[in-house]
Design goal:
- With 154 residues, the chain is mainly alpha-helical.
- Helix content is 75%, strand content 8%.
- The chain contains seven helices and two strands; from the N terminus they run αββαααααα.
- It has helices at residues 2-12, 33-60, 62-70, 75-109, 114-134, 136-140, 147-153; strands spanning 17-22, 25-30.
- Strands 1-2 form a two-stranded antiparallel sheet.
- A hairpin with a 2-residue loop joins strand 1 (17-22) and strand 2 (25-30).
- The longest helix is centred in the middle third of the chain and has 35 residues, at 75-109.
């Protein structure tokens, strides 16, 4: 998210290039198409990582989730629980990353224009949405949990 925020800020708020100073030396950052593709690919890999973490979490807590199902929780309620976990991961990662990217852009430029804050908020919101969508796959796998077998093993 930090890389995507920095690339998007350079492309949108600074029209493709950021020029600033670092320890008295002039630093120039310009955005190419490959930079944007790399940042988007990194976000998509992050979404896959969120889905993987949630899937492993479901496998580790399978007996707990089976117990919840046995006491009356519906598949929809369990799916919402996993979805909320995905959104929480997305909020934590997206806003932390966007803040780091925003900080990097401000550090290079030395100023905080309003458009830069809007870019960071838009990128972070997109990251949360991508994480929520990534959580749908593990949430859908909840229906496959063998409740009776898991409870018998406990």
């Amino acid at each position: 998210m930090a890389a995507l925020t920095l690339v998007t800020a350079a492309a949108y708020a600074f029209r493709g290039a950021i020029v600033g100073s670092l320890l008295g030396d002039t630093v120039s950052l310009s955005v190419r198409g490959a930079d944007t593709v790399a940042a988007v690919a990194t976000v998509l890999l992050g979404a896959a990582a969120v889905a993987d973490v949630l899937y492993l979490n479901i496998r580790d807590r399978a007996s707990e989730l089976a117990t919840l199902r046995a006491v009356g929780w519906t598949d929809a309620a369990l799916g919402r629980l996993i979805g909320y976990e995905g959104i929480a991961l997305g909020l934590l990662g997206a806003f932390t990353g966007a803040a780091l990217g925003l900080g990097g852009a401000v550090w290079l430029v030395g100023d905080l224009p309003r458009s830069l804050v809007l870019v960071a908020i838009a990128v972070a919101s997109t990251g949360v949405l991508v994480s929520a969508v990534a959580a749908l796959v593990p949430a859908a796998l909840l229906r496959r949990l063998p409740t009776a077998r898991l409870l018998a093993e406990e």
